[in-house]
């Protein structure tokens, strides 16, 4: 084994990066220090035995236990985790406000799986913290987190207790903290649930980028207050911070707005944390409850939904076997839009939802390609919920202090990352507003074209029927000399009423063309704004500033490790501080005077535009209903005309038979009869044409849900 460099130092050992001389494989070698060898032999052997019996992807693997040359001291040869620990990930400036939702989900998944393996083997870890959760990158490019450092671990069943103290104070259960940190004698024993407290603190740290319980001056400077915060925490609280010396504790029951988790993920985590961050071991969840609830959280699949009326993005978490009806109910809780009013677009097309299907049938959504919720009524615009990052920008002190300046520079960089993150959210919101509006307008325009086509067909058929009816009436008058019994005046009156009713209905559609022109103008506006969004350079300019700041930050990191700066180095350091501050101000200026103002303007325009669009949409819905009524009346009118023509035909046949039995002198002339026959044939041909047109429009009637009364005509 060839040792190359030291990678980590803990209380009882040092970990080195090494390479197997035969295979070339990179491994981690844990070498115990003198303090470790002062422990009882059974305690020294405990970690070896623990690792030998554990075999899981989320637990650091033990390859061998070897002995050093002359001293014969035992060393552990373990899996090398090249990507550091969860703590090193959280210490990156970009994660100062917590991990992204996808990365946090991976952390929870890996920790829960690793802990489940420990409990199956009756092991309690006793020192769970971000520094003991190692990270590697899998073949698919995703993180894999592994529990490590089992120096404090021991075998313990659920109903067993222990009295020895191990752990790191920020993550210690309050009872253990009292004895180990405050050095107060007590006769308490501890169970496996002490690991749950540490997991709760770790999860909060991963979600928010900071510890949940912080006394004034820090966790290690104000230990009495730290203990007070953890033991006096109200039921349901998940964090407590003291902002002034001897000041009150500010309790919080929700995760902060500036963490990267969605409301859907926050809700699930907020249901778990209060039950494991519980000082009273009798009230604290057991591992069975913990595994049950976390596994429910991990099994849920999520869907991205952008609400166009509210201009907000939601992540909907549901069990894979939930139905579409469940999906719509959850969406309703976030958007206050009843399920029956919800309509969706996906990739530019209407997406019809069958409430009986399982949610697994929904298309795969992402942050870039969500389902877009439309609805049909105006709602209050909520927009993106965010905290103004300007309050997170610290100021450098004028004096040179390489350690203090490094901390300040790191906080400045963290604030810039957060500003960039919020900027992306605001721009994405504008993109979805315009994308959804474009799709909605195109859909309404298509609906308008269909209605105009229907109306045109109705008017054409109506005119044809009126023409036939007029000819039929004139023919009846010629033959029957105004005989009211034969003409059926009641039917004629109803026919006139139907005709007028249809004309009245069609007149209500006269504004359709105007509405379509308004939609065309709105579409031009949307297209223009989409081009402006594509040409926006705010993110590029912010990223350019960030790259320069990262280079300066690297120099700050180097200087903090130097014992003292030379005069020239100090001057360069001062210039770097000045440049870092200037770049940070530039980023903040772009955000406040460009990004936010453009976003607010976009929201205002969207409020006006979406109200107009919904008014037009509702107008066309009414017109569609009127058209359906017109088609019903047209069918009735067609039946009336058809009946009149049928009666005329029957009477004509009867008259013809009678006249054939009379002498030629008293009957109608042959020429008159031929003329009547010809006109009847013409009317029948025209009626066949109308009937064909009516049957051709049956598809329109069926789409409108109107029962056709002339299908047998």
What does this structure look like?
There is one protein chain. The strands form five sheets. Strands 1-2-3-5-4 form a five-stranded antiparallel sheet. The protein has a five-stranded mixed sheet with strand order 14-13-17-15-16, sandwiched between helices. Strands 10-11-12 form a three-stranded mixed sheet, covered by helices on one side. Helix 4 (101-120) runs antiparallel to helix 6 (194-208). It is elongated and about 130 Å long. Helices cover 54% and strands 11% of the residues. The chain is built from 18 helices and 17 strands. The protein has four domains: 1-80, 2-Layer Sandwich (Phosphorylase Kinase, domain 1), CATH 3.30.200; 82-296, Transferase(Phosphotransferase) domain 1 (Transferase(Phosphotransferase), domain 1); 300-373, Ubiquitin-like (UB roll); 403-704, Substrate Binding Domain Of Dnak, Chain:A, Domain 2 (Up-down Bundle), CATH 1.20.1270. The longest helix is centred in the last third of the chain and has 94 residues, at 567-660. Pfam families: Pkinase, TBK1_CCD1, TBK1_ULD. Keywords: ATP-binding, Cytoplasm, Kinase, Nucleotide-binding, Serine/threonine-protein kinase, Transferase. This is Inhibitor of nuclear factor kappa-B kinase subunit epsilon. One of its GO terms (molecular function) is protein serine/threonine kinase activity.
């Amino acid at each position: 084994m060839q040792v190359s460099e030291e990678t980590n130092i803990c209380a009882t050992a040092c970990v080195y990066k090494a390479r197997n001389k035969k295979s070339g494989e990179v491994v981690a070698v844990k070498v115990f220090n003198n303090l470790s060898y002062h422990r009882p032999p059974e305690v020294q052997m405990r970690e070896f035995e623990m690792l030998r019996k554990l075999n899981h992807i989320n637990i650091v693997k033990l390859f061998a236990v070897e002995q050093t040359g002359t001293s014969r001291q035992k060393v552990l040869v373990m899996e090398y985790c090249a990507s550091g620990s969860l703590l090193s990930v959280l210490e990156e400036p970009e994660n100062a406000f917590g991990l992204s939702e996808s990365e946090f989900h991976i952390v929870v998944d890996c920790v829960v799986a690793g802990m489940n393996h420990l409990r199956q083997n009756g092991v309690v870890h006793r020192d769970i913290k971000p520094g003991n959760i190692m990270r590697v990158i899998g073949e698919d490019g995703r993180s894999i987190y592994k529990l490590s450092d089992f120096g404090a671990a021991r075998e313990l069943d659920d109903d067993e207790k222990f009295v020895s103290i191990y752990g790191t104070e920020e993550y210690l259960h309050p009872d253990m903290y009292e004895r180990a940190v405050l050095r107060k004698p007590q006769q308490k024993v501890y169970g496996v649930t002490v690991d749950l407290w540490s997991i709760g603190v770790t999860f909060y740290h991963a979600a928010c980028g900071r510890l949940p319980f912080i006394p004034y001056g820090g966790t290690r400077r104000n230990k009495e207050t730290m203990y007070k915060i953890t033991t006096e925490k109200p039921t349901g609280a998940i964090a407590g911070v003291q902002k002034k010396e001897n000041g009150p504790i500010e309790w919080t029951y929700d995760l902060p707005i500036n963490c990267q988790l969605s409301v859907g993920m926050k809700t699930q985590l907020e249901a778990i944390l209060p039950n494991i961050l519980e000082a009273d071991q009798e009230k604290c969840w057991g591992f069975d409850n913990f595994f049950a609830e976390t596994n429910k959280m991990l099994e849920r699949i999520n869907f991205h939904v952008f609400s166009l009326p509210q201009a907000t993005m939601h992540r909907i978490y549901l069990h894979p076997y939930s139905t579409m009806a469940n999906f719509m109910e959850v969406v309703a809780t976030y958007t206050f839009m009843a399920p029956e009013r919800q309509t969706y677009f996906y990739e530019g097309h209407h997406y019809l939802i069958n409430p009986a299907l399982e949610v697994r049938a929904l298309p795969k959504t992402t942050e870039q390609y969500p389902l877009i919720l439309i609805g049909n009524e105006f709602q209050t615009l909520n927009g993106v919920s965010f905290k103004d990052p300007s309050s997170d920008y610290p100021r450098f002190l004028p004096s040179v202090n390489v350690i203090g300046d490094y901390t300040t520079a790191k906080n400045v960089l963290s604030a810039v990352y957060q500003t960039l993150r919020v900027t992306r959210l605001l721009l994405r919101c504008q993109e979805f507003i315009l994308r959804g509006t474009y799709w909605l307008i195109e859909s309404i325009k298509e609906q308008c074209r269909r209605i105009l086509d229907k109306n045109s067909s109705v008017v054409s058929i109506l005119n044809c029927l009126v023409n036939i009816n007029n000819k039929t009436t004139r023919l009846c008058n010629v033959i029957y000399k105004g005989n009211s019994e034969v003409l059926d005046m009641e039917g004629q009156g109803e026919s006139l009423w139907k005709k007028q009713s249809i004309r009245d209905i069609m007149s209500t559609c006269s504004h359709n063309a105007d509405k379509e022109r308004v939609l065309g103008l709105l579409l031009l506006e949307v297209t223009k704004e989409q081009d402006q969004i594509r040409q926006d350079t705010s993110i590029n300019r912010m990223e350019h500033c960030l790259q320069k700041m990262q280079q300066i930050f690297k120099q700050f990191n180097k200087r903090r490790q130097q014992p003292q700066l030379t005069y020239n180095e100090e001057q360069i350091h001062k210039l770097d501080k000045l440049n870092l501050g200037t770049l940070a101000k530039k980023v903040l200026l772009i955000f406040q005077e460009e990004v936010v103002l453009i976003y607010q303007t976009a929201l205002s325009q969207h409020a006006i535009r979406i109200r107009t669009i919904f008014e037009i949409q509702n107008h066309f819905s009414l017109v569609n209903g009127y058209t359906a009524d017109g088609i019903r009346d047209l069918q009735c009118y067609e039946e009336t005309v058809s009946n009149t023509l049928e009666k005329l035909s029957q009477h004509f046949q009867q008259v013809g038979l009678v006249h054939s039995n009379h002498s030629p002198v008293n009957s109608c002339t042959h020429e008159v009869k031929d003329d009547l026959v010809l006109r009847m044939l013409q009317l029948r041909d025209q009626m066949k044409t109308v009937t064909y047109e009516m049957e051709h429009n049956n598809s329109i009637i069926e789409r409108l849900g109107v029962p056709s009364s002339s299908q047998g005509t």
